[in-house]
Design brief:
It is built from 17 helices and 24 strands. By secondary structure, it is an alpha+beta fold. The protein has a 22-stranded mixed beta sheet that branches. A two-stranded antiparallel ribbon has the order 14-15. Helix 10 packs antiparallel against helix 11. The protein is elongated. It starts with a helix and ends with a strand.
């Protein structure tokens, strides 16, 4: 390709008045995605040869690429006026008419193009896709089959055939066709630059990931989507699929927040990088096809309703539209669940409005306004359900969060992104028996006793944070570079009112007339600055190296979560190296490795960023690693990750994967504590005063994952997944000497253990079988085994050993406009006791009927 372009440039140098040579230069520049250079060459060509129909049609394609559809149609009409038998002109005008919403007229133009040049496989592929969009699957299949025969090495017909098979619920055939298209990708190098070939490969990988998910091959799907990101980081389709994959891993009750940051990050990147014509993306709007060919002006409506027989409802809906250079999305979601024990209910409501405007062919702006409200009881996970709080209530409001983004594309592969946000979050907690620490000092003074007490508490925390991030992307055939910086600034305002402390310490507090604790109202500063750089080097075809480094400096409140709170601020900074490797020694064999370090934020701030969330396909930017059910929310946590995987595909439809992961997280925090000096002569110390108790958490999670999937014939897919996880938490209170005696009359409060090591080892085996029939009917069966061993707990937690079985049946309506699923969860009604030290999402504790209805128009 580059040699051809050099030759064409030499031709116009030798013969600057040769108009047809300038048209060839423009055509080759366009094949590299150099729109501006192509237009300059084309203007010279048309000045010299104004009746060159091919040049007129090419100018139409150039304007269409800039979303200037009206002007593009005008140039195609001029080309047809000069040469009515030019297939390219009919093709271009047909695509533009479809873009405008005239699908029937556009399809007629594509039919004329194919009739005029019946031996061109590409025109047959486009016509087949047009028939598929119209629901005429018989003609679509015939045209695509003809395209495959005309040019067996062109990947395009195989791609469209795969998408057609997916729409017709022929999932296994879709996978085979798309894998064939992927293997033929480089055959387009005759007329595509290496950079654009990488973009093509990314599109195929993103679509393939979506079809893998239909076959129940979720782990294979995520690996394929991450591969697409590495092929072309600026490809929005791959980021969109990863975002949807991480959302599926997330806790619907939002207690364990590990995957919130990567999910939000990938949605932001997808929305910023996508052209306006692609529409908007969110968990509510999830495209079945991640690279639509025929983007067009239209309104759309989607909705999803899920019901569980215990009375839980989840509903989401969106109305969206695309009109020329503008697209928007207005959506709402609602989640209500009475829970599976007392005071385990949750209510969530969210509204958002998103809009995107293309200002110039290279510039677009993005705006999102989001309002969120939640009210819940005690949602934390417990080994023993009776230990949950019966009086804990939480309310959270975001009124609203506002995000603004800007994208400029300098040339193919060179992008500038800017993202800014204002975050407003208010959290209120009430609890009649909220735990706190109580420290008693002797006359020295030295710590004499430390243990837990309870108090009635009303807690309100409000954050107001401004965030701005600038990122630059350079992509090339061999080297890709991403650099950026993020600055955040804001405040936390926390108000705490406590009274009615535990009876055996009530005498220590003032009595006006009942034991009371002075109200606290503290405002603390938050600020963060981050610099990052990542580089990806394709050393040679099988081997890709990734390196990076991030510097973070963060200032945050020392203790704004556990009462009594403190007004002090603390700082943390860290240089975090990143390293990754992707090695493909054979066509269907992939080895990946990654090592990363990172520094977490303080709260919601860490989920509004566009720094790369993964290295070599492995997540590096988590919201948290230590499960919140064990350690609550934390600020300034340090993360370290190690990942290694081996993935193998076989021509028999067999997919194997084995991976190991080590996640480390350390947190040095200060917990609120009342400090009591009964022997002090200082009147200011006659009552307990707010103080702090240092706590160091050191968490390590080691996991081994083995997956096997098998496609059988046209309709069946089998899967097996085994995961072994060892989680160890070392909890140390460095200021608390060992073997302290309890306070007098301690009731049932536990003495603090200054050093404790707890461990949970969890085994999970998931077996599945999926049947997809072309008529739209599908069925799935699952058998899930959990086995857990725990140590270091007082009283002891013996662990778990149980099976749960699930079954689903459903129907996909033609063109996937609707899908209904009926499921029976936990068929045998098996309850369980699992230690939340091993991360898991809550399972049904009794037999549960599930119903889901999805609509898309």
């Amino acid at each position: 390709m580059l040699a051809a372009l050099d030759s064409a440039r030499q031709a116009v140098t030798n013969s600057p008045d040769f108009g047809f040579a300038w048209e060839r230069v423009a055509e080759l520049e366009f094949s590299f995605g150099h729109t501006r250079r192509a237009l300059e060459a084309l203007d010279k060509s048309l000045a010299l040869a104004p009746h060159n129909a091919q040049a007129l049609a090419l100018k139409g394609f150039l304007f269409a690429a800039q979303n200037r559809i009206g002007e593009a149609v005008s140039w195609f009409d001029q080309a047809l006026a000069v040469d009515s038998a030019l297939g390219n002109a009919w093709l271009g005008r047909g695509l533009c008419r479809i873009r405008r919403g005239d699908t029937a007229g556009g399809r007629e133009d594509l039919l004329v193009a194919a009739a005029l040049e019946p031996q061109r496989a590409g025109l047959r592929s486009y016509l087949g896709k047009a028939y598929a969009d119209a629901g005429d699957y018989a003609r679509a299949a015939r045209e695509l089959q003809l395209a495959k025969k005309l040019d067996p090495n062109d990947p395009t017909a195989w791609l469209y055939s795969a998408l057609l098979n997916q729409e017709n619920n022929r999932i296994n055939d879709a996978i085979r066709d798309l894998e064939k298209s992927q293997s033929l990708n480089d055959n387009r190098s005759v007329y595509r630059s290496q950079l654009l070939l990488d973009q093509d490969r990314a599109v195929r990988s993103a679509n393939l990931a979506g079809i893998y998910r239909d076959a129940g091959m979720d782990d294979v799907a995520v690996r394929e989507a991450s591969r697409a990101v590495n092929y072309d980081y600026a490809n929005y389709s791959a980021h969109l699929f990863l975002a949807n994959s991480y959302i599926e891993l997330s806790d619907p009750n939002m207690i364990n927040l590990r995957y919130e940051t990567p999910a939000e990050n990938e949605y932001l990147l997808a929305n910023l990088l996508a052209p306006v014509s692609a529409g908007m993306f969110s968990p509510t709007i999830s495209q079945q096809e991640y690279s639509p060919l025929f983007e067009r002006n239209r309104f759309g409506v989607v909705s999803s309703t899920e019901y569980l027989s215990r009375g839980a409802w989840t509903e989401s809906g969106a109305q969206y539209g695309t009109f020329g250079n503008f697209s928007y999305d207005a959506e709402a979601s609602y989640h209500s669940d009475p829970g599976q024990r007392a005071n385990n209910d949750i209510y969530q409501r969210q509204f958002s409005l998103t809009a995107k405007q293309q200002i110039t062919p290279q510039d677009s702006v993005y705006l999102n306004v989001q309002q969120y409200e939640a009210d819940s009881g005690d949602l934390a996970q417990f080994y023993n359900q009776n230990t949950a709080s019966p009086t804990y209530r939480l309310n959270e409001q975001q009124d609203p969060n506002v995000s603004l983004g800007y994208h400029h594309e300098w040339s193919p592969g060179v992008h500038t992104l800017f993202f800014a946000a204002r975050l407003d979050d208010k959290t209120s907690v009430t609890n009649s028996t909220q735990p706190s620490y109580f420290e008693s000092y002797d006359a020295v003074p030295a710590l004499d006793a430390a243990e837990n007490i309870t108090a009635r508490e009303h807690f309100v925390d409000r954050l107001d944070i401004y965030s701005g991030e600038l990122q630059q992307i350079w992509e090339g055939p061999v080297h890709n570079t991403i650099v950026g910086t993020r600055i955040q600034y804001g405040h936390f305002n926390t108000t705490v009112l406590q009274d009615n402390p535990s009876p055996y310490v009530a005498f220590c507090f003032p009595d006006p007339p009942a034991p009371a604790i002075p109200q606290q109202d503290i405002t603390s500063l938050f600020k963060r600055i981050s610099f990052y750089g990542y580089h990806q080097w394709q050393i040679f075809e099988p081997l890709q190296l990734i390196g990076g480094v991030t510097y973070d400096h963060i200032t945050y409140p020392e203790n704004f979560r556990s009462a009594p709170i403190a007004g002090n601020e603390t700082t943390a900074d860290q240089v975090s190296p990143k390293a990754g490797l992707i090695w493909t020694p054979l066509d269907k064999t992939t080895v990946r490795f990654a090592y990363t370090r990172s520094l977490a934020g303080a709260s919601l701030d860490q989920s509004y960023q566009i720094e790369p969330s993964q290295v070599a396909g492995f997540i590096q930017n988590y919201r948290s690693i230590i499960p919140e059910s064990i350690a609550g929310d934390n600020a300034g946590a340090k993360f370290e990750t190690y990942d290694l995987s081996l993935e193998q595909k076989f021509s028999t439809g067999t997919y194997l994967g084995i991976s190991g992961e080590i996640l480390n997280s350390t947190v040095n925090r200060v917990d609120g504590a009342f400090q009591y000096y009964p022997y002090s002569t200082n009147l200011d110390l006659q009552y307990p005063i707010p103080g702090g108790l240092r706590e160091n958490l050191d968490y390590q999670e080691k996991s081994l994952l083995v997956t096997a999937n098998q496609l059988l014939g046209r309709d069946w897919s089998l899967g097996a997944r085994y995961r072994l996880t060892q989680a160890v938490l070392n909890d140390n209170f460095p200021d608390v000497p060992g073997n302290l005696p309890p306070l007098p009359n301690p009731s049932n409060n536990q003495t603090i253990n200054p050093k404790q090591r707890t461990e949970g080892v969890l085994q999970q085996l998931n077996l599945s079988a999926i049947y997809n029939h072309p008529c739209g009917f599908f069925a799935q069966g699952e058998a899930n085994w959990y086995g857990q061993n725990n140590s270091g707990y007082t009283p002891g937690e013996p662990g778990a050993d149980f099976w749960q079985f699930n079954a689903f049946v459903g129907y996909r309506f033609p063109r996937r406009k609707a899908e209904v699923t009926l499921g029976l969860l936990n068929i045998t009604g098996q309850n369980y006791n699992l230690n939340p030290l091993n991360l898991y999402n809550e399972l049904p504790r009794s037999r549960t009927l599930a119903l889901r209805l999805q609509l898309s128009f």
